[in-house]
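Entry for the shared binder. Reason: the reviewer on the internal report wants the predicted structure included alongside the sequence.
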Amino acid sequence: MTKSTLDDVLDRLHTLQAEVEEEIDRLLNEKRKLFKYTLEQGRVRFEQGVKRLQLQHRTGVWTYLRHARIRHVLTTPIIYSLFVLFVALDIAVTLYQHICFCIYKIPRIKRADYFIIDRQHLAYLNFIEKIHCTYCGYVNGLIEYLREISARTEKYWCPIKHAQRTPDPHYLTERFVDYGDAGAYKKQLEALRKEWSKIKQSTTDCTDHD
């Protein structure tokens, strides 16, 4: 099949994305040296004396509370009231992918890849700020995790592009068949259900195809 202009553009985009990832890794390594920390099996390790320097920039809890804006205080209970719902959703989708992805032979997702909870190690944050940052890290990681699960599910069950493009479609939509192309859908559905070479990190169990 002859490659379209869009295919060429997507190929160049993927190449650029790989270069961007390499550049981000390079910059992260530079920042780690600048701020004197390393990662050991995913755990942050600061050089000796760095935490003492960070403590000089920490705002005490009582000072923090005295200067808190009223709108922040009033809306905090609303933000944290969602925690139970987020945890319930996390449990539900994790069970879903462990059960259904194995049945469908969809590569499962490494949950740990999406939950990076590390800001609590920063000594310049007080106890309340650490709670806020931990919560934000969890919820945003959960959303990324859900997006990847939903993307793989959509690719399996309904790999058809929309008639109108959404503001930020997930990356697997590139592989979907065109809206209105009934012939391509019927011909390519089973192949699309088995083709997972373009996905992000995943586990390898429960994915062997018949």
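Summary line for the report: The longest helix spans residues 127-157.
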